[in-house]
Automatic annotation (TrEMBL):
Record-given protein name: Holin
Originating species: Fredinandcohnia quinoae
Transmembrane annotation, as ranges: 7-23, 29-46, 53-71
Keywords assigned by UniProt, alphabetized: Membrane, Transmembrane, Transmembrane helix
Domain of life of the source: Bacteria
Length: 80
């Protein structure tokens, strides 16, 4: 099952998305990369059934995507 320490996957996914952006990936694809990474972690890292891994992976990816965009939007508003 999803353990509380697995929440550390969120900042890891955010870091991976930031690396892709530094490598030249357009920002509009960042949520897609976050969801793909979340799915990968959910399926391959977590020790759960496939269906549960997909569901938890989507949740992690979407959370990381929202956290990433929310932080980005906050930083842009502070800069104005």
């Amino acid at each position: 099952m999803f353990e509380i320490y697995d929440v550390a996957i969120l900042p890891l996914i955010i870091g991976i998305v930031a690396l892709f952006k530094r490598a030249g990936l357009p920002a509009k694809y960042s949520p897609f990369i976050a969801v793909i990474c979340g799915l990968a972690f959910g399926i391959f890292y977590l020790d759960v059934e496939l269906k549960q891994g997909i569901l938890v992976g989507l949740m992690i990816g979407l959370s990381a995507s929202g956290l990433y965009s929310g932080t980005k939007n906050m930083m842009q508003k502070d800069g104005d």
